[in-house]
């Protein structure tokens, strides 16, 4: 074989490898660090056992699914939200399908906006289990209304709940982690804590604030390498978030279920969250396409990203005004299925 042919063959192989990697990248449903951790990293089944894990917003959606997946790992669970009956339902399912016993799950009712209750709640967990290894700040609420049609009370409520409530609970738990020089603070943020979209002015503001707070906190805790501060940033995921979203008035929510088949399955999002926790990742992006690509674009080419955001944003508003899920139909063909 001539040298020239050999070189052509090598170049062809390199091209095929590049195309394969590009296709993999396009089909990924997490950022590259997360995908690497899923492929080569530590398994949640090895890393997260024997831990005390406190999950807020455990009565529905991502928090509920997190409780189910954690209950299979042999941890001690603290389940918090406002509705005790719903938490009891989640606890029953954890006991039926997981590896935990009654004494391993504590139901701890908590309203995140009632900041005066956070210190006492933290004491209850410490009295019950003696330590808190992971705090999962998951409880939160979204918004579906144009900024111009939204009362100031809605912005206030979203900041009180998503931002101040989360910060307050974290500040109650943090001294305990500092004393032990270890722990993980895992906050379910959103891609909307990085990028922006119409109909979510107040929600985006609260999640951007949260990301700023936790990124600074992580820098301040650099002298405690055993304390991990992690931002989980999902794109659209199946849950009750849209149904519970505030519309222009703080007393009003969307209130109805819309088709969610285009969104990532809750179980897949939670599995990737567990991989992130097992590998101490600082920030992860979890989303199907096109949301991941749009986020990369925001990161590297903001001006182009704005062009695309404005195009998709028009569709988002149109969908919502037609009574559909705001994100339902821009790029159905891109959707990747993992479940
Ligand atoms: N589902 C998505 O598409 C998506 C995308 C990005 C980020 N998130 C984030 O994920 C987190 C979980 O949301 P979800 O999608 O599971 O929605 P969800 O509505 O199904 O669950 C929200 C949970 O938060 C709890 N909660 C609400 N207000 C509370 C309060 N005042 N005090 C205590 N608990 C309260 C609810 O009871 C519920 O358990 C939120 O922080 C949300 O911003 C969701």
Automatic annotation (TrEMBL):
It comes from the Eukaryota. It holds the Pfam family adh_short. Keywords: Oxidoreductase. GO terms for molecular function: oxidoreductase activity. Belongs to the short-chain dehydrogenases/reductases (SDR) family. This is Dehydrogenase/reductase SDR family member 7. It comes from Gulo gulo (Wolverine).
